[in-house]
Amino acid sequence: MASLFTKTKLYIEANSATWDDTKVSLQNDGEGDYIKDWSYSFSKPTDSQIASYETAGNTAETLLGVLNKRKIEYLSWQEQLDKLYHDINNGKFGDTAKTSTWYTHIKSVKDANSKS
User: Fold this and answer.
1) Are the C-beta atoms of 106 and 112 separated by less than 8 Å?
2) What is the Cα Rg of the chain in Å?
3) What is the number of domains present in the chain?
4) pLDDT tens by residue, 34-88
5) Are 49 and 81 members of one domain?
6) d(CA 42, CA 107)
7) pLDDT score, position 94
8) Cα separation of 4 and 33, whole Å?
9) FRET partner for 85 with CA separation of 20 to 30 A, picked from 19, 54, 68, 99?
């Protein structure tokens, strides 16, 4: 189930705006999440409008999870540059880039964390 934050953010973006903490706030009073404050120039979404973003919200949250997992598993940019440096010096970069240790690392992270 997509979070209220994600569904509200998608609604805001569908109205050509961006999330702004000074214009919207969400709250949970123990009975569930709800929109506490709303000051955008367009109307606050109804419950049915928010519900209509469930599928898109689930997709967005799944993608965000994949991207966050990739971010954790990728090496730091310094380590990636070092791999590239060594690949170039060992003749493993260029026409044979797919045999490089850098390429192999990046591909393995992408394959293990597919967007689809």
Assistant:
1) no
2) 21
3) 2
4) 999 999 999 999 999 999 999 999 999 999 999 999 999 998 999 988 888 888 7
5) no
6) 44
7) 61
8) 7
9) 68
60 in the same domain as 4:
yes
Give Cα separations from 37 to 1, 3, 26, 41 (angstroms).
23, 17, 7, 13
Residues 5 and 51 in one domain: yes
Task: Write down the pTM of the prediction.
Answer: 0.70
18 in the same domain as 58: yes
- The stretches of the chain forming alpha helices (DSSP H) are 4-14, 47-51, 54-73, 77-89, 101-112
Regarding whether 10 and 48 lie in a shared domain, the answer is yes
Decide which of 89 and 81 is more confident.
81
The pLDDT value recorded for residue 95 is: 56
Are 61 and 84 members of one domain?
no
